[in-house]
Amino acid sequence: MNTVEQHKQEKHPLDVVEDVYDYADEQLSFEEIEERAGGGEWERLKWAGMYAQKQEGYFMIRTKVPGGYLTPEQAEVIGECATDYAVAPEEYGGEEQNDLWGDAFLDITTRQDIQKHWVEVEDIPEMWERYDEVGLTTVQGCGDSARNVLGCPAAGLDDHECFNAQPVIEAVSDYFTENREYANLPRKFKITITGCRHDCAQSQINDVGLVPAKKVVGVSGSAGDSSDESDGGQQLYGFHVRVGGGLSDGPRMGSQLDVFVKPEDAVEVCRAIAQTFKELGDRNNRGVCRMRYLVEQMGPEKFEEAVRDRCTVDLPESGQDLTVGYQGDHVGVHDQKQNGLKYVGFNVIAGRMGGDEFAAAARAAKKYGTEDASIRLATDQNFLITHIPEENVDDLLAEPFAQEYSPDPGPFSRGAVGCTGNEFCNYAIIETKKRTKRWARELDDRIDVPDDIEAIRMHMSGCSASCAQPQIADIGFRGETVKLEDGEAQRASDASGQRPQAENSTNAEGDNIVEGMDFGLGGSLGADNEFLDWVENAVPADAVIPALEQLFEAYAEDREDGEKFYQWCRRVDNDRLRTVMQRAEAPVSRGVAHGD
């Protein structure tokens, strides 16, 4: 067993939830927590939704939001808890800790979670009590178990869906949460469930993806009957199943199993897949413990056989797949299928906003919406307010928070996604949140994008863990530290128009060591799904915007009718893309990853 598995054997990881109350009551320091419970406690605390920040004594805490669905009351509590508990101490800058957001902010994640930083252990029980009152939890927000279950943020609202899968999402989430039998899997286990034709919940890059399908069953009701409707058969809606998708190192698109799942059987099928992973997954090499490696090793057919062997319901062969593409964007004002109602998608660049602003959005949902109003979190780190009568939309858009998080942003702002970055994360190499927001707005000002392109998906991850999902973006970045020749760092800054100290640093030996990134182009999900190509490695951060200007100038000149940017990047070979990027007056190709 690897070290993490040993930690989980020492104590069941769900037991740590009760231990947190003791740590809080005694106000234990990090050193005292480790002295009492050992170094493995930092791993087990993830099952409580808690990550130790790089700033000792403080936690990031993750709130699960199944399907991204929140009532206004839940959203208001989340925002108020960020204001009350996610507060940076004076020694780290207090309210000035971050020059864009200060403190007391929250992050909407690509998995429809909410993350808060600067939380101290003594405040967590009180936060949990406030969460309990409105039906929220952080349990299993992290750790080697079923994570937050994804869904379409417009479930129940949009004509794109075949049926509303939110009840199925909640049933699956409820089954796995606090279920000790499945709380110790070989690695994190990510499920997505949608009834939407546009696969908003990203089934292709999750461990398990349930997507809409239909099948004709016989008069007897047996889904295994091949009868058609003309023979008196009945058409049922349900799911097809995709397994083994994922990003990070070794990305893989999910494989479809030859099964049809009725909605009432979804919990059992997800349980059977988890059981297969639990029994057969690797617990030795942590680098290949994800379920996608198991599916790859066994092959989809053998994996399907193993699931069938462990499933207690009949799994007939697949029917008709109803997914038509991918649409992860819900920004803007949209009609609901309920007459006279709208939902509004607000753009939150890199997912970060003030807790007070999120609470204000929740109160606005109550003020301007019907009794069914809700807040929905999207996988592109934006959020929706739903069930707004048409006559109230203008008043909603006049609210102060709506000015900052406009539903009508520029294309780079609309498609910008950023991970936590090295501000808080121990793994990240570069800063991401501030850079993503600044770059998105600067690019909107500096680059003219064709009028028919609403969003340019630019995703920035601080390391190779892919929390910002760069492999599926038009433009993807993966953090590096970059060594430049003497003088190149200054020339890069001059070319970009940014101050050298904003992106660059010099080590004690006099070498120019700057923050930079691997630069990828051409990713997407959907019918033409493909991971991007890492076209250039170790690009200094200050060289990125000049390189993008050159790329979009070439795109505008060479573009075919209706061609999207990622499609153009695929059509043009990588050597030419590199040549275009190198036209910039910046050292696009003259850096190397520091240490290489």
Shape: globular
What separation lies between the terminal Cα atoms? 32 Å
Sheet-strand content, in percent, reads 15-25%
Number of helices: 20
Compute the CA-based radius of gyration.
24 Å
Structural class label = alpha+beta
Largest sheet: 7 strands, mixed
Please count the beta strands (DSSP E, at least 2 residues each).
22
**pLDDT < 50 stretches:** 492-502, 504-510
Helix content: 25-40%
What do the pLDDT scores average to? 93
Word description of this protein:
The protein is of the alpha+beta class. Strands 16, 17, 18, 19, 20, 21 and 22 form a 7-stranded mixed beta sheet that branches. The chain has a 5-stranded antiparallel beta sheet with strand order 1-2-5-4-13. A hairpin with a 5-residue loop joins strand 14 and strand 15. Helix 8 crosses helix 10.
Brief rundown of the structure:
The protein has 596 residues and is of the alpha+beta class. Helices cover 31% and strands 18% of the residues.
Write the layout of secondary structure elements.
Blueprint: H1 3-10, H2 16-26, H3 30-37, H4 41-44, E1 50-52, E2 59-63, E3 69-70, H5 72-85, E4 105-108, E5 114-119, H6 124-134, H7 166-176, E6 191-193, E7 208-217, E8 234-243, E9 255-256, H8 266-280, H9 291-298, H10 300-310, E10 320-321, E11 332-335, E12 341-346, E13 352-354, H11 355-368, E14 375-377, E15 383-389, H12 393-397, H13 400-404, H14 411-414, E16 416-418, H15 433-446, E17 458-461, E18 475-484, H16 488-496, H17 500-503, E19 504-506, E20 512-521, E21 533-540, H18 544-558, H19 565-571, H20 574-581, E22 592-593
Helix pairs in contact: 5-6, 5-11, 7-8, 8-10, 9-10
